[in-house]
Amino acid sequence: MKSRILIFFVISIAILIFLYIYMHRDRGRVVDPTHTVFIKNTEDGFQLNRNGSPFHIKGAGGLGHMKELAEAGGNTLRVYDTLNLQSLLDEAHRYGIALIVDIPLPTNESNDTYYADKEYILKIKRDIRNLVRRYKDHPSLLIWNLGNELYFPLVARENNFIKVFNQLVDLIHEEDPDHLVSTTVVGVSRSQTLSIHLMAPKLDIIGFNAFGNITRLKTVMNAVGWITKPKPYYITEWGNHGPWESDTNLWKAVLEPTSTAKGEIYKDIYLTYIDPDSDCLGSLAFYWGYKHEGTPTWFNILDEEGRKSEVYYYLKSLWTRTQLEDTPRSKIQNILLNNTEMNHQVFAPENVMTVQLNMLDTITHNLSFDWKIYKEGWGLHEWIAEPDTLKISDIKNSFSNTVEFNVPEEDGPYRIVVSVQDDAGNFATTNIPFYVLNHDR
Amino acid sequence: MTDKMLKAPSKYQRFKIRILILIGFASIINFFYWFLDFSLIEDHVLYWLLMILIFYDTFRLIYIWYHYWDISVPRKPKTSIRPTVDVLTTYFPGEPKDMLKQTLMAIQDMDYEHTTYLCDEANDPELKEFCQENKIIHVTRDNRIDAKAGNINNALKQASGEICLILDPDHIPHQEFLTEVIPYFADPTIGFVQTVQTYYNLHESYVARAAAEQTFHFYGPVMMCMNSYGTVNAIGANCVFRRSALDSIGGHAAGLSEDMHTAMKLHAKGWKSIYVPKLLSAGLAPATLTSYFKQQLKWSRGTFELLVTSYPKLFSKFTWRQKLHYGVLPLHYFTGLIFLISLLIPIISLLTSSTPWNGNVINFGLIVLPVIVSIIGIRFYVQKWVINKGERGTHLLGGLLMQITWTIYLMGLLYTLIRKKVPYLPTDKDDEEKTSFYIVLPNLIFGLICIFSIVYGLYRDFTPFSLFMSGFALWNAIIMFYTLRFAYTLNAISTQDRKKMDKDFNRESKFEKYIFTFWQRGAVAVLGLVLLFTVYLNGRKEEIKYDGLAHSGSFNKPIKYLGVFAPIEDNGLSDLSKVEEFSKSINQDMDIVSFYLAWDKDLKTSFPEKQLLKVYHQKAIPMITWEPWTNTFNEEQNFKGHVLDSITSGYFDAFIGDFAKRMKNLDKPVFLRFAHEFDNPFYPWYDDREGAEVHFKKAWIHTWHIFKEHGADNVIWVYNPWKPDNVTSFFPDAPYVDWISINLLNYATHDQENYRSFQTLYSPYHDEIIKTGNFPVMLSEYGTYFDPGYQKLWLENAMDMILSNYKEIKAIIFFNSNVDNNMPDGTEGDSYLNWTIADVEHIDLNFKTKQMPLYLTKNKPRAESAPKKNTNLLANLSDIRGVNIKNSQKWKQDYHVKTRKHLESNFEKISNLGLNTIKYTSNQTYDYNVITISKEYNLKLSFGFWIPETINFMEDTLMASRLHDRILGLVKKYKDHENIISWHLQNDLFADGISQFHEPVRSYHLSAYVVWLQKLTSEIKKLDASRPVIIDYTLNGLNEKQAKRLFEDVLGLDGLGLIVKDDIYDDTNRLLENIRALDVPYVYSDISTTVLAKMSQESTNTNYFIRNWQDQHQIDKVTFDGVIDRKGRFKPDYFELGKYLGSFHHDVVPYSIRILKRLDLLGYPHKKSLYFAMHYDPIKGWERMEHNSNYKLEWALVKCDPYGNFLTINEVEGLVDYVLLDIPENYEEYHLRLTILKDNTVKSTMTSLNTPYYQ
């Protein structure tokens, strides 16, 4: 009996050892130091090399404003589209910026539709091949990011999606051995990260879109290390908490910190989670530009006119490791709706609302205030967001920090958004939600 | 009579009995689950009386089923013991001596050695002598202490046998009695053995028969079960005691129920008992009502006495089953009290016009049915174990006798309470006694009260509930009067017959046998199925209550038409033989045959009348594409300019008029596609000028009017634009257009660049057509280019699209021509295009869901055109301040019952508010109540008849004539009620029914309806010439002329009852304008207070009926348009109306409540979401409501159908100021309703469950 138990243990341990070795065998791409961009596995961990010297990614995701990026000390921009790629690459080259280029792909949810369609697969392969061939020799190119938030499934056998994904990785490598291929994981999903490790061995580097989840990043990567050899990674998006994970009010409208407060938030995150992580090959702040996500202002580091927010100055200080600039800038203290800071106020249409924006410094004549009221674009995804169609009131270039609005006539959730600009090219913004209920007829 | 011992149930039978009992028990639980809904209590006193009744009966039922659970038969031990036996019988002065002597002789004849004792209370010398002669020991005593028991105990002093058998003097033992019973005493723990008691005077009288029936089950399965439970009852007769057992309790116990008392004492001492279900003697049942009553009084008093005296003393010594048994058995005699309650419930209910319960009667039936089936079913099943086959049956007589004895049981209970003694008298064995009238009297009095309450109750309040209660009361009355039969039909059967009947007692007919066997086999299945089925039905009904009914589509499923253009040559005319050929090849009837007709001055020769008439012969309708070519008019001088202008200017009037006349003469429907493709530059009637659409519309309307003037009502106007862009801009709209048509031809083969799928071609039109409203669409030229192989694909794909996405397409005309020379670019080519279908037989072109009705190819029903007599009785009505009573129209589905109470309270409120008239729609059930009670409140009554929109006046003449007869019947019946002021034909079939048809079906239906109305109104006038007849009409600013014509067409109509919809008439000026355009007498039949108040300056002295008095609440319909809500509470509208009427002078303080909902994605399963109650404070603005004792909040989910009708309302449990709602599946179909209740007034608000994106 005893001998049986012994045999059982021996076999089990043997299997485990075998599995460990099997899983940790190097199935990745062979490192070739002659390539423009490659990742070297050194004693201190992975090291990204570009044009023969080590390169640490410091930058943001967006669609331009590269001058400002370079001025802030950033060296990399992630662009989300291949539209106008030539001019973007050229502009990047002008400012010495490296580009991470997103190649959009349908997610795993399309496994049974797009990925099962052979003609479609041929088409995207052809398109991607053309794209890569066309731009592979551009000096600004850093990484091909194959798909954003693809929801890699943790499955035992390759499905259509994984098959195609790997074929595409090989295809890009074949066409362009000089640059890396990455993909991004939504949040810091443990299962998706593991799936990429197990299912896409030839992928060079994993990117994480990490907001509130950035706290879990080290834990997840350590956990992956128990199972297989971890891949190099970098942070493809980071910033303050996203609208999906933020606080909400009574009717579940998201509550956004003022742009002034966001500066400190970015700093805290960077110094706590990004800077100290020596395994991480770099990070991209979100979002270098202007977009609607939850609110029209949620992630904007720059506004439509390229004005700079507080976050810009904090990032500059972090990237350049210098003191925070002490230039005079518009800084918001708080916003008051009918003299209270309460962010769950309900109004009846015939009333008038008074909104007041308080600034940290004295208000001078070189500040101007843009006031807008939007219908709450809740449930919208950013790629179909048309905040302007939701705009119902717009007071531009007011020089007063207090305005009065007539309460909108239609029932429903709204948001007052204010942006204050100075003549030095800075802006600050905040917003406050409110609700309209008509009297019952 | 057989003396074979019954067999105990086999394992399988026992299992079946238990299953049956479990089903019965489940039925009871099911009943209570639904019945204990306290929200349905109407009258508390009656309800709880009813509950006592129900609980008692349930309790009794379970007790009986408990005694069917474990039926057993003792095994007779094989033994050689021969104990000594004493047999005792008693004599009480007055008992017949012959009977006693007979008994004594039978005792002597028993085949087991024994000593016989006669315990003679009378010390009768005759009996003494008889005893001496027969070696019977005669015992007597000098007192009468402890009655029968004392008598026996006295004898026992002398007797010394180990076993003693006590026989009643009427009980004649069988010879083998002792031999059968003695062996059971082999077990020394057995205290007594009881055997069956049967009667040999079963057929002496109804009372005897009934009394015996009451014992059949008891001596069968019940006692056999007691045998298993150790609770065998000792009966005074035929009980064999072990002497040592009797001695251990100090002899035979005393009391009125001395037998039960003895058994109790023996059981308490630990003696065991056995029941031998074997017939070993027969006795006499009480044969007169007096003797039966005496016996029952004695037993009930005695048994109650045991319950209150001996039972508590012996309680601790019993086994648990004995505790139960002796505790529960006496409760049987509560029957008296219970029956009193069941007598009182309907009497009180009828006299006070109230009911205990106001749930749905059908639901009640569904929950009570399985219980009743179980009661009967189990009873019949266990009848296998009654002692004799003849004892099987319903035992109705026994039941009746028990019911009429209620006074006696009540007396027994009363005597026990006041501790009054009933003297011991032996059960009467003498039949000669006459029944005293006094014992019958209480029952007769109650019977009369029942009858009186029925008459009075129905006179006062006539509802389904009062009818139900009357039925209940009538049943009670019948029982009460049955007393007389028991009392006075003595010796109804001659002795000889009786003997024969006794002999036949156990003979079963074949039928009885069959039924019995069937039930033995099928009981479980039947009971189970009944339970399952009723539970299912009830569950389904509850589900409907919650979810509402899916509204079944009305009968007017749209008719679709299939047609063809099949010419032989390029002359624009279809050839009927080619049509036939095409029809055969696609195996479908052609409904439309297409012709192209260019304008030709010479109509005499060019009008193809013959061909057109032939089309009708072929059961189809012709369509003429009427092309305004002007070449034949060119010679004339005056004609110049654009053809459309010339039409408008009247240049062509004569020609058009002539054509119209010819069309009219066809006298059957004909589609007219006039000036088709007017926006196609190829045709000369194309107009490239600025404002072309105005010219076109003018010309069109001008033409239309000429046709109308010539009475060409049979023409169906088909509007056919060429480009999608022009669909709406050129559209002349109703009533000038009946159909929109589109030409849909794919001008290429699949390999060509300009090959288009159906969808690509049609969808631009579709997007425009839907803007025009609900017009039917015809594909007036339809086809794809001759293209063998690919035509099939194109056509079949097109048909799929038409059937699934483009449901507005109601007609398709195949362009089956190979002689077309019109090129797609609008030019005329040299060669012909071929549009014929290549392999037509193999293409699935199924389009029609039903055949076109044949009446369309016949003439329309003709309305009478007699000159109208202008009675204008409407002028007689003045100062009508009325309100509609809309609820309870469908009484079976409605939650409101128009009881006297309901009507009284509502009528009082109505008159107090300052209204003087009600409008009520007859549903027959409540007519009587509404008419009589409204009279009591001095309310005038406008009596309405509902004309369902589902009646097909064209085809279903039976339904229509039934409705006609019913309305006339009602007019005849009620015309003498003075408070009725008018007859009102309700439901505007133009708005709701007929208008949903398309031409030509619509005109046919309309004509048929008008003919029906003419007949109806003229006959109403014959019956009652004094009251106006009014018909409902929904005002919409569109069909005023049509309405006016209807009014003028229908003889005997005195005016229109205008239905004014709020959403249409925000602007009262428009409303008044529309009314002026009508120019007929009218009343407002259905109008809201708001609109009425707005108009009050402009229109004074108008008669009106406010929209609705109370919100409707039916199983599948809820409305919120009442002045009071569904629970009878005042809504803001009530105060508004009061103010309008001048009854209230103060303004109602306005306050607002609303629901605040969250930004939630609701579409996940099991999702909950929060909703907050908000109220508006004039100073602070909107605030969340707080807990406050001044008001109460009610939350409810309202389900709607896709048309926005409310189907059901179900309250949901809310918290202080918010509700956490379980989001239902398909949440888009629901609304959340919040009601705030202050004092007796309510205010409500409603919201959809979700906040839409981009709200």
UniProtKB/TrEMBL annotation, chain A:
<dbReference type="InterPro" id="IPR051913">
    <property type="entry name" value="GH2_Domain-Containing"/>
</dbReference>
<dbReference type="InterPro" id="IPR017853">
    <property type="entry name" value="GH"/>
</dbReference>
<feature type="transmembrane region" description="Helical">
    <location>
        <begin position="5"/>
        <end position="23"/>
    </location>
</feature>
<protein>
    <recommendedName>
        <fullName>Glycoside hydrolase family 2 catalytic domain-containing protein</fullName>
    </recommendedName>
</protein>
<keyword id="KW-0812">Transmembrane</keyword>
<keyword id="KW-1133">Transmembrane helix</keyword>
<dbReference type="GO" id="GO:0004553">
    <property type="term" value="F:hydrolase activity, hydrolyzing O-glycosyl compounds"/>
</dbReference>
<keyword id="KW-0472">Membrane</keyword>
<dbReference type="Pfam" id="PF02836">
    <property type="entry name" value="Glyco_hydro_2_C"/>
</dbReference>
<dbReference type="InterPro" id="IPR006103">
    <property type="entry name" value="Glyco_hydro_2_cat"/>
</dbReference>
<feature type="domain" description="Glycoside hydrolase family 2 catalytic">
    <location>
        <begin position="88"/>
        <end position="198"/>
    </location>
</feature>
<dbReference type="GO" id="GO:0005975">
    <property type="term" value="P:carbohydrate metabolic process"/>
</dbReference>
From TrEMBL, chain B:
<protein>
    <submittedName>
        <fullName>Glycosyltransferase</fullName>
    </submittedName>
</protein>
<keyword id="KW-0326">Glycosidase</keyword>
<feature type="transmembrane region" description="Helical">
    <location>
        <begin position="47"/>
        <end position="66"/>
    </location>
</feature>
<keyword id="KW-0472">Membrane</keyword>
<dbReference type="InterPro" id="IPR029044">
    <property type="entry name" value="Nucleotide-diphossugar_trans"/>
</dbReference>
<dbReference type="GO" id="GO:0016020">
    <property type="term" value="C:membrane"/>
</dbReference>
<keyword id="KW-0808">Transferase</keyword>
<dbReference type="InterPro" id="IPR022790">
    <property type="entry name" value="GH26_dom"/>
</dbReference>
<keyword id="KW-1133">Transmembrane helix</keyword>
<keyword id="KW-0812">Transmembrane</keyword>
<feature type="active site" description="Nucleophile">
    <location>
        <position position="781"/>
    </location>
</feature>
<feature type="transmembrane region" description="Helical">
    <location>
        <begin position="465"/>
        <end position="493"/>
    </location>
</feature>
<dbReference type="Pfam" id="PF13641">
    <property type="entry name" value="Glyco_tranf_2_3"/>
</dbReference>
<feature type="transmembrane region" description="Helical">
    <location>
        <begin position="514"/>
        <end position="537"/>
    </location>
</feature>
<feature type="transmembrane region" description="Helical">
    <location>
        <begin position="394"/>
        <end position="417"/>
    </location>
</feature>
<feature type="transmembrane region" description="Helical">
    <location>
        <begin position="437"/>
        <end position="459"/>
    </location>
</feature>
<feature type="domain" description="GH26">
    <location>
        <begin position="540"/>
        <end position="846"/>
    </location>
</feature>
<feature type="transmembrane region" description="Helical">
    <location>
        <begin position="364"/>
        <end position="382"/>
    </location>
</feature>
<dbReference type="InterPro" id="IPR050321">
    <property type="entry name" value="Glycosyltr_2/OpgH_subfam"/>
</dbReference>
<keyword id="KW-0378">Hydrolase</keyword>
<feature type="transmembrane region" description="Helical">
    <location>
        <begin position="274"/>
        <end position="293"/>
    </location>
</feature>
<dbReference type="InterPro" id="IPR017853">
    <property type="entry name" value="GH"/>
</dbReference>
